[in-house]
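Dissemination and training. As part of the outreach component of the grant, students in the summer workshop were shown how a complex can be specified as a set of sequence lines and then modelled as a single object. The example used during the hands-on session is reproduced here so that future cohorts can follow it. Participants entered these lines:
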Amino acid sequence: MVQKLHRLRETPSQTAGPYVHIGCTPNFTGISAYGGDLGVSMKTGPVKGEEILITGAVHDGTGMALKDAMVEIWQADASGCFAGQPGADPDFTGWGRSPGDMDTGAFRFDTVRPGRVAWPDGRMQAPHITVWIVARGINVGLHTRIYFADEEAANAEDPILSRLEHRDRVPTLLAQRAANGEFRFDIHLQGPHETIFFDI
Amino acid sequence: MTAAKNSNAPGRNGFVNRDRDWHPPALYPPYKTSVKRSPQASLLSFPTSISEETGPVFGHDTINPLDNDLIHNFSADQGAAIGPRIVVHGRVSDEFGRPVPHSLIEIWQANAGGRYRHKKESYLAALDPNFGGCGRVMTDEDGAYEFRTVMPGPYPWPNSMNDWRPAHIHLSLFGHSFAQRLITQMYFEGDPLIWKCPIVGGIPTREGVESLIAPLDMARTIPMDALAYRFDIVLRGRRQTMFENRVEGL
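and obtained this result:
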């Protein structure tokens, strides 16, 4: 016998199910509560930096867009500070939540282009947004990241992007500027364009 | 001083990685919806960085007084929801047993008849005009939380021809970091449907399933008012390394 390690096991994840919006965005479902849904707006006033719109959808293995997903993002402000850190933009929350469009499932984030933040060893990461996806049929919430296709120099030295073995999958992490000026970022749960998901 | 040899080694305060064999796998065919919604490539493993070690912070002023009272928080005149009245309480800690204070928990559930208030819900059980089905609560300085609700009913759902969900409450937890973000479901002691459910069944071990079953807690019941169930929650833990490559002289 040896001494016991007093560690607790993380509570097992369970799917968010088809009614995640009741709990997380009740007003979106018609339940009037809390004076509004959390995460609808990431800006509480005039923000610093380049304001951008990111749209996309979550697709299943048949290519169909999910209409019961919830997508959350978390990111640094334009100067690379997270909300709450010294020097962070006081009018930027860094956190957004989208229940998706009722009819199309499309999500939309009205945010700012994030600044660069450090990797644990001090190297700078490319500008990115952390993404978390839950839905019916997803047993453990999925993490991925949005990088920006037009940040070629920063992307080339990013500790994660530069180390990916399957280069043909890198574009699944890149938001592309569309003709209307918005950034497009589609998430594919499986299939030939399956997004790279992170065990992070 | 020695520089780290592996530049992708975890930082000294990184999160302990998630034990993927403890959670349900992405693909669990008895839960049919998982078949086309499960990634097939391996997840990409990287240490957490500041992007995941931080997360949104919600103040206690986010919460309204009735937000954690699902019995009364929907009805315009605070009429009571129908069903067995219960208190659910517990403590949120990390894998090292440290409390997770001042963190947001969101909850949602079916009413006592097993019916959700949602336009896509088609179960024939009746809606309760006094029950919305959502609530939220902040953990206190010890990581403790408590909410009041009615016992949710079990309900049938389209999967195989006759699948029933055990009574359950959904919980969404923020912790203090995006790495800790978790959605789970709590079940109730003694419910025979737990062991027949294809969503529960994805959890690989009996021990894992049991960690989602809240026991009746007679000590916390409110006499002549409500039964009580205790549900403790564990979020991912953060390393606290004392000895790291320190600069000489420090």
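Residues 52 and 83 of chain A are 18 Å apart (CA to CA). Students were then asked to discuss how this feature might be tested experimentally.
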